[in-house]
Specification:
Blueprint (H helix, E strand, L loop, with lengths): L2 E3 H14 E2 L11 E2 L1 H6 L9 H25 L26 H7 L9 H5 L10 H5 L3 H12 L15 E3 L4 H11 L10 H14 L3 H16 L9 H16 L9 H24 L1 H19 L1 H13 L2
Helix pairs in contact: 3-8, 4-12, 7-8, 10-12, 10-13, 11-12
């Protein structure tokens, strides 16, 4: 049975980000340079494609998936017009992400409270119109309930949901959308039983790598620099950005209503910039980026040597499924 869990999807995304080298002058965090292990895994999500190729791939996949949804709904006795808009858009050249640029960091920090393109993103855009809305509105309430159950599957029982709202996704219980997705994507190599031992080994490798002596020494040097700059309490370089993320999450969780130009959020943005600049200074003083890349590459090369056959099989399966 082909299944996802919300946690697994998030874990894979985080893993890919960790494996991706981002150019300081690039447009958003994307894969311009891959780590050795990242080159294997990029085949499964199109990281080796250009922005135009990725956009074309998603549009083609969406068209095929929506046509299958329409076929499935028709067979169930309902009308359905394929939805042309996939909702996916590759970031364009107008959004610049430069976390290693002092000018950029001085303006955006880590890009949490403020970020390039924020004003455009928050402006009201063209209202989405579902081509099936008129048909659905013509149905009785009971017919509408049946329509959506056929389209998306039955609602998830509360006892099957985690405390964070996550649940195990089963395509066989996800209606015409689940069936169409399974038909177009097949078995996701990231979540298939065949490659589970490899995925488990990769997760264990990256968890253990955080404690590698070489990285521990580098992080200790960075943390000492941060202490000198008045930002103590961090153990690893990622802790600085995580601390701001935690503060921002806490801010939003405590909001009962949206406050325009909230001074508390503005203060948080100022502290984010201050911390991000200190972080940047210490990364530059310790040559953190290049040293981390070198250490990671050496450790990954050893992992690849130990799991060459499994990785080659994973890459072949991923490329065959594209």
């Amino acid at each position: 049975m082909y299944r996802h869990t919300a946690g697994a999807v998030v874990g894979v995304a985080a893993l890919l980000i960790a494996l991706t080298g981002c150019s300081g002058s690039d447009t958003g965090p994307k894969a311009e340079e891959q780590s050795p292990l990242g080159e294997y895994l990029a085949a499964a999500w199109g990281g080796d494609l250009s922005e135009e190729e990725q956009q074309k791939r998603f549009e083609e996949d969406n068209k095929q998936r929506e046509e299958l949804v329409a076929q499935c709904m028709t067979e169930a006795g309902f009308e359905y017009i394929p939805v042309a808009d996939s909702g996916y858009m590759v970031s364009g050249d107008d959004v610049v992400w430069e976390p290693d640029s002092r000018e950029w960091v001085a303006q955006y920090g880590y890009g949490m409270v403020e970020w390039p393109g924020k004003d455009e993103a928050t402006e009201p855009g063209e209202e989405y119109v579902d081509p099936n809305q008129d048909y659905v509105s013509s149905l009785t309430e009971s017919e509408q309930n049946a329509y959506y159950e056929v389209l998306y599957g039955p609602s998830i029982p509360e006892e099957e949901m985690g405390e964070d709202g996550s649940y195990e996704w089963d395509w066989t219980q996800s209606g015409c959308h689940g069936w169409a997705q399974h038909e177009t994507e097949g078995d996701d190599p990231f979540t298939s039983d065949e490659h589970k031992p490899l995925m488990d080994a990769i997760n264990e490798f990256y968890n253990d790598m955080q404690n590698a002596p070489e990285l521990a020494d580098l992080n200790a040097e960075w943390a000492s620099c941060m202490d000198d700059a008045g930002h103590s309490g961090f153990v690893a370089q990622a802790d600085a950005q995580t601390s701001m993320s935690d503060e921002l999450n806490a801010y939003y969780e405590n909001q009962t209503e949206w406050i325009e130009d909230d001074p508390a959020l503005a203060e948080l943005a100022e502290r984010e910039v201050e911390l991000a600049l200190a972080d940047l200074d210490c990364r530059e003083k310790t040559d953190y980026r290049d040293q981390q890349a070198k250490i990671t590459a050496e450790l990954e090369e050893q992992f690849i040597a130990d799991h060459k056959a499994e990785l080659d099989a994973f890459k072949a399966a991923a490329e065959q499924g594209r």
